[in-house]
Amino acid sequence: MKDKQFAVIGLGRFGTSLISELSRMGYDVLAIDNDENTVNAAIEIAAHAVQMDATDEQALKSIGIRNFDVVVVSIGEHIQASIMTTLILNELGVKKVVAKAQNTMHGKVLERIGARVIYPERDMAVKLARSMVSNNILDQIELSPDYSIMEMMAPNSFAGKSLVDIGVRNKLGVTVLAVRRGGDIIVAPTAAQLINEGDVLVALGKNEKLQRLIELE
Ligand code: ATP
């Protein structure tokens, strides 16, 4: 098993999918839910599964929740339980709490009480919309509401030019972190790096600057 320890509280579709993927990647995940049948089903996919009410501070303490590297609260519809659980985790000193928000107001509260907030449906819809309008975006990681890392096809007009000639940083205001070329990857390319047709750029920058880069031919 890999050394990072994860716990997922709330085994709906999101929580279950998250656990399946982490387990597939070789991580040890503790699955928590207050519904007995749900917990029994989770034993199939998680290293450990515990039935408990996550709003019970003593119960969370007794399983040593503080020692987990990341705890994900994926209770969506029961907003009060989601907020209470997040608050308790924060007070117990959990290093990193990620919480799933149902709507903006819920998200704002979770953020105030120390969670990194995700909106899976909204985020997925935004990603899908962006990839639908542009064939060039391959993937995107949002670092903050304003900044992202985007993997995109290099615009055709870049072919045969170096990053400095293109002015990726000076004119376009983004940083190219890596260039993928077939099966190879050029990490931290220098300004003199030439771009070929078919290259994939991994670029970091403000969303509006990245958007402008994507729209180039
Ligand atoms: P998804 O969209 O991911 O399917 P959801 O957003 O609809 O899920 P909910 O149905 O609110 O999420 O809850 C997900 C899980 O959280 C359920 O399995 C539920 O039993 C569990 N849950 C709700 N409240 C608590 C609680 N206080 N303690 C532990 N688990 C809880």
List the helices and strands and how they pair.
Layout: E1 5-9, H1 13-24, E2 28-33, H2 36-42, E3 48-51, H3 57-62, E4 70-73, H4 79-91, E5 96-100, H5 104-112, E6 116-118, H6 120-133, E7 137-142, E8 147-153, H7 163-166, E9 175-181, E10 184-187, E11 200-206, H8 207-215
Parallel strand pairs: 1-2, 1-4, 2-3, 4-5, 5-6
Antiparallel strand pairs: 7-8, 8-11, 9-10, 9-11
The structure holds adenosine-5'-triphosphate (ATP).
Descriptive overview:
It comes from Desulfotruncus arcticus DSM 17038. It holds the Pfam family TrkA_C. This is Trk system potassium uptake protein TrkA. Residues 3-120 form the RCK N-terminal domain. GO terms for molecular function: monoatomic cation transmembrane transporter activity. By secondary structure, the chain is an alpha/beta fold. The strands form two sheets. A six-stranded parallel beta sheet has the order 3-2-1-4-5-6, sandwiched between helices. The longest helix has 14 residues, at 120-133. The protein has two domains: 5-118, Rossmann fold; 123-215, Alpha-Beta Plaits (2-Layer Sandwich), CATH 3.30.70. The chain contains eight helices and eleven strands. The N and C termini lie far apart (46 Å). The protein is elongated, with a radius of gyration of 21 Å. The model has no long low-confidence stretch (mean pLDDT 93). Strand 1 (5-9), helix 1 (13-24) and strand 2 (28-33) form a beta-alpha-beta unit. It binds adenosine-5'-triphosphate (ATP).
